[in-house]
Design a protein that fits this description.
Elements: H1 2-27, H2 40-57, H3 69-82, H4 84-87, H5 96-99, H6 118-127, H7 143-155, H8 161-167, E1 172-175, E2 181-184
Antiparallel strand pairs: 1-2
């Protein structure tokens, strides 16, 4: 008898929880605007979910040798064409699109990203991340091209603007009328890779 009552109470509480959740969602109280930061608890939950999901899905990925100059060169060209709008490059301060993104994309020219897990970087670039503006480049690029990006990211931290320009084929930056900087590059494809579309990452 007691077990039946306990079960009924638990079912009632679960139903109330579902109703409360549905009410919260349909109320529109939660602000999904990019210029309104998450609540602190929401941010921590999403961050934990993201990190654990990436780690689990990348667990069995085995990186190829990432010191191949051809792989790095191809990755440099792709990075210059596709990624600087969000992740910047040596000598870049900010871009218009990056200024409006939340969460702010990491700046891969900073030293603190040097030791990022290669398998996880590959998975992120290939599959993207929901609700972060990070696209799934695997829809338009093969694995070799994506590994090239990972290989280049290992070389990027601490690189000077001059070294970056040489590796990426002479890309340069221009300032817009609001003082932010935007990349101005000639898209270069690594030999043997298909043409690709260019976006914010």
């Amino acid at each position: 008898m007691r077990d039946m009552k306990t079960t009924k109470v638990l079912l009632l509480l679960a139903s109330l929880g579902l109703l409360a959740g549905a009410g919260f969602i349909y109320s529109g109280i939660y602000n999904v605007a990019s210029d309104e930061p998450h609540w602190k608890l929401t941010f921590k939950l999403i961050e934990a979910l993201r990190e654990r999901s990436i780690a689990e899905h990348a667990r069995n990925i085995l990186p190829p040798p990432l010191d191949d100059p051809k792989l790095i060169s191809g990755g440099a060209a792709h990075y210059s064409a596709m990624c600087t709008g969000c992740h910047l490059a040596p000598g870049m301060k900010n871009t218009e699109i990056r200024a409006g993104l939340y969460p702010t994309p990491p700046n891969f020219s900073e030293d603190r990203y040097l030791n990022s897990n290669s398998a996880q970087q590959f998975w992120i670039i290939k599959h993207g991340i929901k609700m972060t503006a990070m696209p799934a480049w695997g829809a338009t690029h093969d694995d070799e091209s994506i590994w090239g990006l990972v290989a280049f990211l290992k070389k990027l931290p601490g690189m000077s603007p001059e070294e970056y320009a040489v590796l990426t084929g002479g890309g340069h930056m221009h300032s817009d009328n609001r003082g932010t900087e935007s990349p101005s590059v000639t898209p270069l494809d690594a030999p043997g890779t298909p043409p690709h579309s260019h976006g914010g990452h």
